[in-house]
Amino acid sequence: MKVLERNVTRRSALMGGAAAAAAWVARPLWKRAGAANLEQGAPAIVAAKVSQTPSEPTDAAWSQATAASVMMLPQTVALPRVAQAGATLLNVRALYDAQRLALLIEWPDAHQDTDLGTVMQFRDGVAAMLVEDPALGQPPITMGAPDKPVVIYHWKSDWQFGRLRDVDEAYPNMYSDWYQYSGAEAGKMPEASDYLTKGRKEYLTAAAAGNMLADPQVQEKIGPVQKMRAVGFGTLESDATQDGTGKGVFQNGNWSIVVSLPRKQEKYTMQEGATLSVAFAAWDGSRNERDGQKAYSLWSNVALGQPTTPTATPTPAKGGGGSALPVIGGVVAVVVVAAAAVIGIRMARGGRGRQGGQQ
């Protein structure tokens, strides 16, 4: 009887383990199926046509566009990861005119983080990522690939609010004797720009070396929206052409950001009635989010007016199968789990019945 009990327990454990393994294998397939549905679905954001796209987030013209909700995910794919991102949902509206496409991106944020001249703060920010060349197919969501580049328009809060602010604004009661290479008078706290305009720029080393993040003059020239290009992880760089504009407003615990870009891009023009792919990212500075630590979205479809023709068609991943394979895999996994559960229950009942007969 004890041998039988051990056999039944062992068989039940094996079947339970098989069921758990099947469910675990099915998890990425279910995720892929969901991602395929999101990426290949109908246009989620429809841009309304106006005579001129607004530059202010509070402009009444935005009421002409219908808001779309874009789900955000914590970036857990590559280092540096974030376990839980601050932004979980973005509300996006879109307007276009003869020359430009403008996006109004809004989300709740408990703190306004604009990185005002200290090393202990991180900025809030938001970015819109587009396909550089639709003829090459849709790039990976992971900032493109070498054969499928992406273009990114990144609004940075400190480039709008804090690029000419320094430590003396963050700590107004501090005192300085003399910074002899800054060009500022003795007893006056120099601004970062003083080294570049009146002093010796090599003492503002990062800016002198061409680092845009440390050069307030470059930030002033570009504005709060920087256009960048990437071909995968670790390849992000500033684009030679800076044609993005934007403005952010923080009110009642909410960010409202306008990101405006030309319809005529280097490789294509956003035609009226066309559909294009756009993905989003957001950073919450109060949660120490920066670089790859952020919230991101999958590709969303944006149509300029009522869609008639696609600008870019999503390309299935190599290996074939499209979205059918994940669905089939998920169904098979469910069948396996159900069968394993039934067999395990019957085996356990049969074991108890035989055990009762031998008593």
Q: List the helices and strands in order.
A: HEEEEEEEHHHHHEEEEEEEEH
CATH architecture of the largest domain: Sandwich
User: Percent range for helical residues?
Assistant: 25-40%
Instruction: Please compute the radius of gyration using only Cα atoms.
Output: 27 Å
Give the CATH topology of the largest domain: Immunoglobulin-like
Count every helix, treating DSSP H or I runs of 4 or more residues as helices.
7
Low-pLDDT residue spans? 1-41, 312-345, 351-359
Mean pLDDT: 80
Number of strands: 15
Number of domains: 2
Question: Per DSSP, what share of the residues sits in E-state strands of 2 or more residues?
Answer: 15-25%
Shape: globular
By CATH reckoning, the class of the largest domain would read: Mainly Beta
The CA-CA distance between the termini, in Å, is 9 Å
What structural category do the secondary elements indicate?
A: alpha+beta
Characterize the main sheet. 15 strands, mixed
Give the helices and strands, then pairings:
Blueprint: H1 2-39, E1 45-49, E2 68-71, E3 73-74, E4 89-96, E5 100-108, E6 125-131, E7 150-156, H2 157-161, H3 167-170, H4 192-197, H5 205-208, H6 216-222, E8 225-230, E9 237-238, E10 245-251, E11 254-262, E12 274-283, E13 295-296, E14 300-304, E15 309-310, H7 324-358
Parallel strand pairs: 1-4, 1-14, 12-15
Antiparallel strand pairs: 2-4, 3-13, 4-5, 5-11, 6-7, 6-12, 7-8, 8-9, 10-11, 12-13, 12-14
